[in-house]
Design brief:
2 copies of one chain form a homodimer.
Chain A lengths: L9 H8 L3 H9 L6 H14 L5 H8 L4 E8 L8 H14 L5 E8 L5 H7 L3 E7 L3 H4 L10 E4 L8 E4 L1 H14 L5 E5 L5 H16 L5 E4 L4 H14 L5 E4 L2 H13 L9 E3 L16 E3 L2 H13 L7 E4 L2 E3 L5
The structure holds a DNA duplex (30 and 30 nucleotides).
DNA sequence: CGCACACCTGAGAGCGCTACCACCACAATC
DNA sequence: GATTGTGGTGGTAGCGCTCTCAGGTGTGCG
């Protein structure tokens, strides 16, 4: 344990630099006028004393808040038990740390979006990151947080969004399947209310209908377990299926597991594709053909956008690129 | 967007309840005296006004800090790019959210542990969660944060720790391998400075030496990629190896990938085991025999312990249990 | 020379909250 | 009746910071 050394305050810095608190504050925040001399002296004082502004005091006077809230919509708190959410939260925490901000996560029930209002009533909330965003949520963002909110998924006139190009990714996958001769292509989807799943499914349907092919859909839930049962269901309903598109890698791996257990060759009899390119996709057998997208970058971009208080509706789309391996 | 409704302050509550700010504060924090009547009136005022205490103001006056810092030791910032870290951060953020606290993550270079002092100089830090803890770090925890620090890994006389029973898990695995007739058991380890890896390796060596068997170790880095090359290396140095213990599931999957590519039967020729029981361990082919431990629970317990300001050195060990599947 | 207008500075008011202290009423004790 | 509690209460001083505002100095211009 280190000895108790009281961290330096702005007063200490001002005294050491021989200026007033106001001037020191101005130099440090970079607002308002300050002579080069004053600037210089304050800077050295800051360095020498190892001054770190007190985030709480700053937030108090500015009414700014002290943490970024990641609000995740879903049917149950279990949405938070997910690698994707973990990555988003963790990336946000990394972005926020140097700014003296923390990150909190909370679940917003899909059937009680008003819960978001309660969560954001707290003055401590400096910014909002909406995940799994559904339309009703966007109208519940308080005016105070306007310009300090970014949505991963759908945005609105006032809320900018950052997103994966799910449609593009799925299209690339389906085209690849088609190009390799598959014509009876089924899909294990995600919950339809989820924008990202919805968009993926739309892309799948669009391409199939363009080719005059019928869609074969089974609703899944992003889990490997559901992938297993879904595979079974698909082969029961449409025994001639020659390709299965998984909504995510976990689902695809579940599908493959079930297929192989039933003696179905992958990709010989049925090609299977994933989505996400999780680290393990390359080491499974067969290695997974999937679409890759930079989740960490997206989360980082989203958190950065919140901190930068960018204004006006913007929509940043991150590409999803096909990764060809062995399963399709 | 919702209309701008100024969040209620303590003054509003006091006025509505017809008591002084002091009394209201006492009721809300639950410290000091308050008559049942006053208590009741303040409570209803809080409910009606939807009052949420301002975390920043509270932190300012109490000198308490406003976020929990997750400090991760490692050789490079890439340690943070890890599912395990993501889970820890995310779990901490979940625990902290209802308390009006945020979570920040920062990397502490293994060769510059003093960086921790800079990070904790910030008054905003309310608590500290040490991950990948190495001994020098424990002495750098500032007195102010004493009793508000928990280490995942090794602890000290002043810093309580929460940990996985790595030794127990690896012992269970090696015993299982031995019981199924394996006698030439190799291991792909993690970086030796990492306590958890160190403990696992110690357990492996201990059991092998008890059985009069030689250890066959290759140093890895927790990655699947390294698992692949390590497998190759092991079979080159000790061609008669009949079992490989992976330090984690990713490594084990890399090992399996390489082995199968080389035409080696798993588990026929060589049994392979993982460690962690990641969600995919059950869907790979062959399904991974591994050890399971509740990472989320551990992180939750650690974060909770930080908030509860528990005192005195305690050591909580979470069990690691063998999960028998097909790979060994 | 006086006035405007830059640039620069410090005093001081609070942000919302807690904690300390003084106080009051009433009861029990000497 | 004077003392000592004891349960309850309100006044108020800050915590560390930002920001407005009222001043200071200079320089350029009419």
């Amino acid at each position: 344990m280190t000895t108790a050394r009281r961290p330096a305050t702005l007063d200490d810095v001002a005294r050491a630099a021989g200026v007033s608190r106001s001037t020191a504050s101005r130099v440090i925040t970079g607002t308002g006028f300050a002579s080069p001399t004053a600037r210089e002296r304050v800077r050295t004082a800051v360095d020498e004393l190892g001054y770190r502004p007190n985030a709480a005091a700053r937030a108090l006077v500015r009414g700014g808040g002290v943490r970024l809230l990641v609000a995740v919509a879903g049917t149950s708190p279990a949405v938070l038990d997910d690698t994707y959410m973990d990555q988003v939260v963790s990336a946000a925490a990394r972005v926020c740390a140097p700014h003296g901000l923390g990150v909190a996560v909370q679940w917003v029930p899909l059937d009680a979006p008003r819960r978001l209002t309660e969560l954001t009533d707290d003055r401590g909330v400096a910014g909002l990151l909406l995940v799994n965003t559904v339309a009703p949520l966007l109208d519940l963002v308080p005016a105070r947080l306007c310009g300090r909110t970014v949505s991963i998924g759908i945005g609105s006139a006032t809320v900018p969004s950052v997103d994966i190009d799910n449609g593009g990714g799925i299209r690339a996958i389906v085209r690849h399947l088609y190009a390799s001769g598959r014509r009876r292509i089924a899909m294990v989807t995600g919950p339809p209310w989820l924008t990202c799943s919805h968009r993926s499914v739309e892309a799948y349907r669009g391409l199939l209908s363009d080719a005059g092919l019928p869609a074969r859909e089974v609703v899944g839930d992003f889990s490997a377990a559901r992938g297993r049962t879904a595979a079974q269901e698909i082969l029961r309903r449409w025994p001639d299926t020659d390709a299965i598109v998984g909504i995510c890698d976990a689902t695809a791996l579940g599908v493959i597991g079930r297929l192989r257990a039933d003696g179905v060759q992958v990709p010989g009899d049925v090609a299977v594709t994933g989505f996400d390119d999780i680290p393990l996709a390359s080491v499974t057998a067969p290695a997974l053909t999937t679409a890759s997208h930079p989740v960490r970058e997206i989360a980082t971009a989203a958190a950065t956008a919140v901190l930068e208080q960018r204004r006006g509706p913007t929509r940043t789309l991150f590409p999803s690129s096909l990764v060809r391996r062995d399963s399709a």
